[in-house]
């Protein structure tokens, strides 16, 4: 699955990465796959939000055919 990255994750890894995520797809599985493939992101990933099809998700489950877009949005600061 292609995962769009933002903020510091995009700066470190690029705008998009490919992850293998087993079904049912959940926010936790996406985060676990991300940390497994990019262990240096562990600190940022635990506090990141996951969006599926442009909607933030927490405990929802999806079949692969339901997923058009996945995004990981780390916390950002600013004023």
Automatic annotation (TrEMBL):
BP terms from Gene Ontology: Mo-molybdopterin cofactor biosynthetic process
Gene source species: Loigolactobacillus backii
Assigned protein family: Belongs to the MoaD family.
Record's keyword terms, sorted: Nucleotide-binding
GO molecular function: nucleotide binding
InterPro entries, sorted: Beta-grasp_dom_sf, MOCS2A, Mopterin_synth/thiamin_S_b, ThiS/MoaD-like
Protein name (record): Molybdopterin synthase sulfur carrier subunit
Gene3D superfamilies reported in the protein's UniProt record: 3.10.20.30
Keyword Manganese: no
One CC-aspect GO term: molybdopterin adenylyltransferase complex
């Amino acid at each position: 699955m292609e995962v769009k990255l933002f903020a510091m994750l995009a700066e470190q890894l690029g705008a998009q990465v490919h992850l293998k995520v087993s079904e049912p797809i959940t926010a936790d599985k996406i985060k676990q796959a991300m940390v497994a493939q990019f262990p240096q992101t562990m600190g940022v990933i635990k506090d990141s939000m996951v969006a599926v099809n442009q909607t933030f998700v927490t405990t929802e489950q999806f079949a692969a055919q339901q997923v058009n877009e996945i995004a990981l949005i780390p916390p950002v600061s600013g004023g």
